[in-house]
Design brief:
D-amino Acid Aminotransferase, Chain A, domain 1, Rossmann fold, five-stranded mixed beta sheet, alpha+beta, Dna Ligase, domain 1, 3 domains
């Protein structure tokens, strides 16, 4: 699960890593108001889950609120590598003295966490590795041992950090490693970690969580909300998963993995979703070009199966993009729900296992 920058920075801040003052905005008016509140030049940063946003024009600077409005209008709605910008982060513009790169990632070949750090921050780290590999410090951590602050200071020292800053940079590295562990991350990254007249600040933040550990990271899942108050997380697969309850949604994702599928979304419509909410959730995932099949996994309790069925038909009738839909439907008013689907010629399953297998087979047939 890739986490948006603004959420990653919330995590970093809660765990002791300084980040710039920032306000999330969804409209140009909100961006202008945020700039007014800050009372200083700001950075307007697109919130997308792909890299290269700076080169694509997804980061701009504004000297005043009216300029912030103008820049926000340019960025909102633009597409960056196929992802539409729906949110922007308005941050105070910093006076940067120098920049570092720091990350913790899973090294699959070594089967250990790998800390990578460099005095060359703010640039493409792959380019640094290619041209000047000696500037990248690599430090493997034994997963059976505790990573201690003195080891983090040793990484900072090897980076070439000046003596007065070794302890502070080492402290950031140590805290980043703790975040990596606490949140079951594939990667936790700061690029750049900047020195300003206010001290060290994480100017950017990246956090990718292991999908198999999402059940332990309900805090992050709850934060990821759409305007309709769905718990929604975009993933890297091609089968959208919708369920009524976090546990049921995660179970559906696990079942897809067992049969060789890859979830494209985690979307929890909650325990009492209405016909309208069902329709909005389906429209949300269908609008994602990466989604090839939708797996709707409903165990009706408060959510009624007949409401689910009607919501499905609303979408099938109105949607221009036709995406195959696999429905697992059981629970409250299930007979009425199944009758509605049957009369409309829409198939369904009562077993989650059967439905998940069918979704995977259907997706593979489209390749």
């Amino acid at each position: 699960m890739k986490v948006y920058e603004y959420l990653a920075k919330d995590v970093f801040k809660k765990n002791g890593i300084p980040v710039p003052n920032g306000i999330l905005a969804e409209t140009a008016e909100e961006a202008e108001k945020a700039a007014e509140e800050m009372g200083k030049p700001v950075a307007i940063k697109s919130q997308v889950l792909v890299g290269g946003r700076g080169k694509a024009g997804g980061i701009k600077f504004a000297e005043n609120p009216s300029k912030a409005y103008e820049m926000a209008e340019e960025i909102l709605g633009m597409e960056i590598k196929g992802e539409t910008v729906e949110k922007i982060l308005v941050e105070e513009k910093m006076d940067i003295i120098s920049e570092f790169y720091v990350s913790v990632a899973v090294d699959r070949s070594a089967k250990k966490p790998l800390i990578m750090a460099s005095s060359e921050g703010g640039v493409d780290i792959e380019e640094v590795a290619r041209k000047t590999p000696e500037k990248i410090i690599k430090y493997h951590v034994n997963p059976l041992d505790e990573f201690l602050p003195y080891q983090a200071r040793d990484v900072a020292r090897k980076m070439g950090v000046e003596n007065p800053l070794i302890s502070k940079v080492g402290g950031i590295i140590w805290k980043l490693f703790k975040i990596f562990q606490k949140y079951d991350a594939h990667i936790a990254e700061i690029n750049p970690l900047v020195i300003t007249d206010k001290g060290l600040i994480a100017a950017d933040a990246k956090l990718d969580i292991d999908d198999d550990a999402l059940y332990r990271q309900k805090e992050l899942i709850k934060i990821e909300k759409t305007k309709d108050e769905f718990a929604y997380v975009k993933l890297e697969g091609d089968i959208a998963v919708i369920g009524n309850g976090a546990g049921l949604t995660l179970s559906g994702m696990d079942m897809l993995n067992i049969y060789g599928g890859e979830p494209a979304t985690f979307l929890d419509i909650g325990g009492g979703a209405s016909q309208e909410n069902i329709a909005r959730a389906l429209n949300l995932v269908i609008s994602d070009p990466d989604v090839k099949v939708v797996f709707l996994n409903v165990l009706g309790g408060i959510t009624r199966a007949d409401d689910v069925a009607r919501g499905v038909l609303d979408v099938l009738e109105a949607s221009e993009r036709k995406v195959p839909l696999v429905i697992r439907l059981t629970g409250t008013n299930e007979e009425e729900g199944r009758r509605i689907l049957t009369e409309a010629g829409v198939s369904f399953e009562t077993s989650m296992e059967t439905a998940a297998q069918k979704a995977v087979e259907m997706c593979k047939s489209l390749e």
